[in-house]
Every structure is written in C-alpha cells, then in structure tokens.
Amino acid sequence: MTKIGYRFTRPRRLIFEVLEQHIKPVSTQDIFQFLKKRNKYIDLTSIYRTLDLMKKATIVNEIEFGDGKKRYELVKGKNHHHHLVCKNCGDVEDIEIREEKLMKALKIETDFKIEKHTLEFFGLCDKCK
C-alpha cells in the first residue's frame, strides 16, 4: 500500500493478515469476528473503508455470490481464478479455467472490450449431493 501512497497502518496490516490467513473469501463481519476473537478490535466502519481502499488499490477482489453479501480475497499475482459455490452449505472452492478461447470468441462476435470478468458456478458440493 505504501507504493501507492497509503500508510500501512496497524488496522490495515491486521485486515491484510486476516485475508492472508484465509483461503476462502471472507466478509467484513468474518474479519470483524476473527479479530475480535483474538482481542484485536477494529470497528466495522474502519474494516469497510480499508477493504474499499484495498479494492481500489487492486490488493483485494470483491466477490458477491448472489446472496447480497460481499466477500473479499487477496489478489494473488496473475492467478486469476473462479469459484464453485455450494448452494447448500456455502462452501467455496477456487477453480482455474482457461477462458482464452471464450474471450476471443466474445471479442469477435460482439466487438466488446472486456476489461474484467467474474465467473461463479453454483451447485452442490460432494458433501451435500
């Protein structure tokens, strides 16, 4: 964050560490509860503001799985991935898909310049089938 002109304050560092420790996307409430259990209090407003700043700085991705609840995960280099979301238990699994052919076909068919995309598949995981 310092490279883009923002200080890496204690609350920002703690939120970053929470995101680093979680494999799956987490909500603001998840972050709040995780820190609270470890006696590290940061108010929800600060968490929202920090995540918004991290999103603008492309440090985190914001994901919404159709339930109105925003979740966040760290951007991991060029490791672009998608998600499998269980409609029953809410489990989320990262998947990598080679979508180059689809992107080229969309460009040819629509002449639409794609800048960003997200793709989530909803269904039932092995445990819930």
Topology:
Elements: H1 10-21, H2 28-37, H3 44-56, E1 60-64, E2 70-74, E3 82-86, E4 92-95, H4 100-110, E5 120-123
Parallel strand pairs: 3-5
Antiparallel strand pairs: 1-2, 3-4
Helix pairs in contact: 2-3
Unreliable segments of 5+ consecutive residues:
none
SS-based structural class? alpha+beta
Q: Which percent range describes the beta-strand content?
A: 15-25%
Cα distance, first to last residue? 42 Å
Counting H and I runs of at least 4 residues, what is the number of helices?
Answer: 4
Domain module count: 2
Oligomer: single chain
In N-to-C order, the SSE pattern is HHHEEEEHE
Corresponding CATH architecture of the largest domain = Orthogonal Bundle
Overall, the morphology is globular
State the CATH topology of the largest domain: Arc Repressor Mutant, subunit A
Labels describing this entry:
repressor; alpha+beta; iron; transcription regulation; Arc Repressor Mutant, subunit A; 4 helices; about 130 residues; Dna Ligase, domain 1; DNA-binding transcription factor activity; two-stranded antiparallel ribbon
Write structural notes for this entry.
36% of the residues lie in helices and 18% in strands. The protein has 129 residues and is an alpha+beta fold. The strands form two sheets. A three-stranded mixed beta sheet has the order 4-3-5, with no helix packed on it. Helix 2 crosses helix 3 (44-56). It is globular. The mean pLDDT is 87. Pfam families: FUR. Zn(2+) binds at residues 86, 89, 125, 128. Its cofactor is Mn(2+); Fe(2+); Zn(2+).
